[in-house]
Every structure is written in structure tokens, then in C-alpha cells.
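Researcher: Next entry in the queue.
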Amino acid sequence: MASTTVPADRSASSTIDPAEAAHFGTLAADWWNPKGSSAMLHRLNPPRLAYLRQRIDAHWDGDPDGFTPLAGKTALDMGCGAGLLAEPLARLGASVTGVDAAPENIGAARAHAEAGGLAIEYLHGGVEAVAGRTFDLVTSMEVVEHVVDPEAFVTGLVDLLAEDGLLVLSTPNRTALSRLAMITIGEGTGAVPKGTHDWSKFLTPDELTELVEKAGLKVIDIRGLHFSPGAGFALSDDTRLDYFLTACR
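Model: Structure for this entry, 249 residues:
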């Protein structure tokens, strides 16, 4: 398990966008409803978990048939919402901390974890909420495009990573396809709450790679996320819509 204290991080000031936090806070009560406003996040979770499991097993030479590959490890989910990813990470054996900018989400996350008998530490704030600590696994899914300073945010995440740790991010790519799918169709039809995305803040894989490498990590994998109306989301070599990025020291 990673040590719990390190020198103060290089990005102690908050990268939270108050307007973004308020937007996602309004969704808190409906977050765990698979047919509600967060339905797309529920559909995203299976390929997210599949990708994470692949990278976890590869990084720590785990048994792909084991049930708790994160046993004895610490995990941080930054921008955890109401816990859709934090809870599966806990079930994979990790000691999990979830951090979110919206206090409403933290309240919903704590209540849901308690009802499910899961001991997860939930904190309100941004990267500064856990400054000085380190984690074996750091995840931040569909978050970097919502912060005020992506470079400071990524630097803050890297500062929270243990020496042998694994960083996994996901974010939409800034392409014509993502604009069409996520904003014109997704928000236009109500499948995604209106105002969720600002296409100009999406990062390309090259841009995110540059931020991660500038902060001191090595990018070891990039994988796309494809969507089709019939099959839903699936891992893909096509990064035009959305993608995962994995890095380590």
C-alpha cells in the first residue's frame, strides 16, 4: 500500500469551476437512477471497468480471474460524482477515496455507499482536498474537460500518485464526431443534460499526453471508446469520440 504523506503538491489552489460544480450538483439525487439524467454514465461504466481491469492486471501482474486485484491498495477517484466508479473499485478490494466538487454529489455518494455496506471515504473539493497524500491508483473519468485549468489539474493528480502507481483518465476528444454525438444529438435530444459539455474545452489525445508527460509521467496506453445506438459503449481503437489514457512513473 502506498505511503499516505508526501511533500505538498504543486497545485494546491483549486481548479474547480463553480458553475460546473453547480451543474453536476443538480443531478445528484438522480445519479444512481440507470434511466435518469445520468443514464449515459451507467452505460459507460462497464467498458470503464473492463479497461481499468486490463490496466490494473497488466501493471501489477495480477490474476485476470481474481476478484480483488486491488486488495491492499489505495485508490482515488477524482470527480467521483455519486460514486458510480468508486463503489466498483471498493469491491475490487481497494481502500477508496472519492473527491467531488459538488457537495450534493458527496452526500448522495455517502448515503449510497452506506446503504450498500461499503466503507468509502468521500470528500468535497478538488485535488487540494487530498494534498499531501498518495494513492496506488488514481482515476478521473470525464472530469478534466470541466476544470478551469487542465494543466494544474493534471499536475495535481500526478502529485497524488504513488511511486509505483497507475493514473487512468478518460475524456472526450475534440473532434467533429464528439460535437455531433455529445452536444448536437446527446444534449439536443435530452439524452445528456443540457449544458453538460463545452466542446471547446475537450482535449485531444496529443494535448492530454503533453500535459501528463509535462507533469512527469509516461503515457503507456491510449484506448478509444466507441458508441453505437444498438450496442452502447465499447472499447475501440477509434479515439475520435472519447478515450482512455493510462500513465505511470
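Model: Helices lie at 18-25, 39-60, 86-91, 103-115, 150-159, 176-187, 205-214.
Researcher: Noted, moving on.
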